[in-house]
Amino acid sequence: MSALVWGSILLFTALFCHSVIWHIKIPQDYNSRLIQLFGAVFIAGISFLFYSSLSQIKLFVPPPSNPVEYLHLGCLYGAGTIFYIFFHVVLIYDSPTLLIVDLVSKSGNQGLKEEELYKSITDDLLVASRMEDLVIDGMVYRENDRYKLLPKGRFLLEAVSFSRRLMNAPKLGG
Amino acid sequence: MIILLEFNFITGLAVYCLMQIFMMRFFPGLGFFKSLFIGFFCGLFAIPGLFLLFQSQPHCGPNYYALITTNILTYLFLSYCYSDFLMFGESALRIRIMREILESKNGLSLKDILDKYNVRNIIGLRLKRLESKGQIFKLNDRYYLRSGILVLLARGIKILRYIFTAH
Questions:
Q1: Does A92 touch chain B (CB under 8 A)?
Q2: In this predicted complex, what is the ipTM?
Q3: A120–chain B Cβ distance below 8 A for any pair
C-alpha cells in the first residue's frame, strides 16, 4: 500500500514542480531537465520517507517498511518518469494530424481550403523546429549549414531498425 | 517465484512484447495497430492472472490489491513507452529525417530536407490519410470534419499543454 501511495504522491509532486518551472520558463534541453527534476524529487522523497521511518514520525500512510517496498516504489516512480518523458514529446511538438483536425474543426460549417492550412502550418513549425530539437538532443550536429548524425542519433536509428527487424516490418513505416 | 509475483509487471511487459512481435511476424495481415492492441491486453490480463494462478493462499486485504494496482500502473506506464517507441519508428518525422541524413554522403542542409519533407508533402499525405479513414471529408474544395474523436484528442492535448507548459 505504501509503495502505491507514496509513489503516486512523489509523481504528482514532480509533475507539480515541473508545471511551475515550465510556466516560468521552458528550458531548451527539456529532456535532461525533466530527468534532473524527477530525480531530485525522488531523492528528496526517499530521504524524507527514510528519515520519517527512522525517527518514527507518524504519517497518514506509513512509509515503506522493507527494501522490497522501496523497490516497488522505485519501479512505479521510475516507470512514471519514463512515461512522462515519452509523453512530454506530445506536448512539445505539434502533431500535423492533430493540427489539421483542430483547424478544420475551428472552421465549422464553412469548411477549410487546403491553401488556408498552409497559412497556419509552416515549414518552420513542422520541420525546422524539429531539426533544432534534434541538435539540442545531441542526435545531429550542424557543420557548414549541413546536418550530420551523431553517435546518439545513430544508436536511436539502430534501435528502431532492430525493433522493426524483430517485427519483420519494412525499414520505413507507413 | 514470490519475487516474480511481486514484480509481475515485468512478466506483463514481456507478454506484451512477445505477443506483439508474434502477431506482426505470423499474422502480418492484422496490421501494426491491432498487434499493439492485442499485445497490450494480453500483457494487462497476464498481471492479475498470474496473481490468481500462483498465489498459494488467497490474500484479499488492501495490501494485496495495492500490490496488483502498483504492478498494473507500472505496466501501463512502461507499455505506453514501448508502444510509443514502436510508433516512433513507424511514423515519426524525426526518424525519417535522421535516416535520410545517415544515408547521405555529406550530410543534408535544411533546404535538402525541406525538398522532401516540406509542409505541402506532409500535410497532403495526412489529409489523404484522414480522408481515407473517414475523419474528414472534402466538398467543393473544402475540408469538413466528420468524426469528433480526434478533435477531443487535440483539445485534451491542448489542455495538458497549457497545464504543463503554459502554451
A1: yes
A2: 0.85
A3: no
Task: Compare CB distances from A118 to B88, B96, B119 and report the shortest one's residue.
Answer: B119
Helix (H) or strand (E) holding A119: helix A114-120
What's the grid cell of residue B122? 506532409
Q: How many domains would you assign to chain B?
A: 3
DSSP 3-state of B58 = coil
Within 8 A of B117 by CB-CB distance, chain A residues are 127
Grid cell at residue B99:
535516416
Residues B50 and B111 in one domain: no
pLDDT tens-digit profile, chain A (174 residues): 888 999 999 999 999 999 999 888 888 788 889 999 999 999 999 999 989 888 878 888 888 888 888 999 999 999 999 999 999 888 887 788 888 888 888 888 888 888 888 888 888 888 888 888 889 888 999 988 899 999 999 999 999 989 889 888 877 665
Give the mutation candidate from A9, A12, A75 for the B interface (greatest B CB count, under 10 A): A75
**Does any CB of chain B come closer than 8 Å to the CB of residue A132?**
no
Q: Are residues B19 and B87 in the same domain?
A: yes
Contact between B8 and B51 under an 8 Å Cβ cutoff? The reply is: yes
Residue from the list A122, A149, A167 with its beta carbon closest to the beta carbon of B98? A149
- Mark whether B63 and B108 lie in a shared domain: no
Q: Hey, which residues does B137 pair with through a beta bridge?
A: B144
Among the partner-chain residues A101, A111, A127, the one whose CB lies closest to the CB of B139 is A111
pTM (two decimals): 0.85
Chain B hits for A110, Cβ within 8 Å: 142
Burial label for A20, CB within 10 Å (0-12, 13-18, 19+), is exposed
CA distance B155 to B157: 5
Please check whether residues B79 and B17 belong to one and the same domain: yes
Same domain, B125 and B68: no
**Quick one: B50 and B70 in the same domain?**
yes
Q: Which residues of B touch A171 (CB under 8 A)?
A: 99
B108 touches chain A (CB under 8 A): yes
- Residue B146 domain boundaries: 134-167
